[in-house]
Amino acid sequence: xxxxxxxxxxxxxxxxxxxxxxxxxxxxxxxxxxxxxxxxxxxxxxxxxxxxxxxxxxxxxxxxxxxxxxxxxxxxxxxxxxxxxxxxxxxxxxxxxxxxxxxxxxxxxxxxxxxxxxxxxxxxxxxxxxxxxxxxxxxxxxxxxxxxxxxxxxxxxxxxxxxxxxxxxxxxxxxxxxxxxxxxxxxxxxxxxxxxxxxxxxxxxxxxxxxxxxxxxxxxxxxxxxxxxxxxxxxxxxxxxxxxxxxxxxxxxxxxxxxxxxxxxxxxxxxxxxxxxxxxxxxxxxxxxxxxxxxxxxxxxxxxxxxxxxxxxxxxxxxxxxxxxxxxxxxxxxxxxxxxxxxxxxxxxxxxxxxxxxxxxxxxxxxxxxxxxxxxxxxxxxxxxxxxxxxxxxxxxxxxxxxxxxxxxxxxxxxxxxxxxxxxxxxxxxxxxxxxxxxxxxxxxxxxxxxxxxxxxxxxxxxxxxxxxxxxxxx
Length: 475
What we know:
Number of domains: 3
Low-confidence stretches: 58-63, 131-135, 467-475
Mean pLDDT: 84
Distance between the termini: 67 Å
CATH architecture of the largest domain: 3-Layer(aba) Sandwich
CATH topology of the largest domain: Rossmann fold
């Protein structure tokens, strides 16, 4: 139900307004701003209809904020509707431009008031939705990816949020596998160019002799084998974004042409004289130390300064281990969509091994290892034997003596260590749960059926743990 306050010295107006809201509104009346504020503080109003005559006579008429501010302090969403005679419509129109949300004229028409209230309510809902969407800057499909418990990564997302809507050149810095390609797409998809092309170029994978042609295109006859005109990546990305990965590998001539694009927004095809305009947003990335390359004369200083307008440094995975669980969840969801096995967790030993691993290949290595283990896994939980032995070293330290036999080959030693580990792990679980299968399986992150199979495989007597528990509690 709408709660409406009418501020006017004309008491004859109130019944007409009340008539408009006889079913879904409660109309109150105040003869001055002070009494209206007092009533509003006791029970906030949704709409305040202000008679312009009353406002003109009030002490604060020259400063409308003095009138509206006390109401908004109690309810920031309160809507103001200016009211004046029809021959003074210019006054209420001016009020709408300055402080009011809408206006009505007198004599009062109940139908007009209902329409105005509906319109202001609709406008408020739209404004709230826009505010919500601004808060929810990230598009829905990216929400899982942009979550982080790491301070450095949260700073990265804040920076992306700031720069994405602009046309500024971005330089992504980070080790191999930190996700520079993913973040370049994140910037593009949250920019004003998101509906235009996104063209990715791995500069290091293109031979030096072909790089200029790939980037800027070539004319027919420009070089041996150029039997036709070919558009370059910059032409293909017109209106959108071009991502130049491994920018530190480009040749001197290509650096000069790229500098021209950044300075003048123009380029020409190889072997051509036509000057073309590049309406392209550039995102570059590198794992090299460009400052050092500039000092060594391997990279142009002026080009570096043009690229380094908005640098974003991506932390290595080993520096953001607190994000591992959420990254694993996202990657497993992708693997389930791809392969359909329905695996949603890691064995606790794998979790432990992940935390102690150095991750030289960063997120790319994590993704590859999970996919390999996923393909090999026959159960519903990714188990330690499907990951490299060096990742599980810490988890297996307690059973390392099983490998003392130097005559064992690596595969045999690994098999024995895994079996020793699983036996010890299951016995410890059953000891903790007094032989109860369901809570033990829950702790292990597997199903009771899987746990029972392991118990049978290793010939473990679960009843022995029940009797131990009974004996320990006997007086």
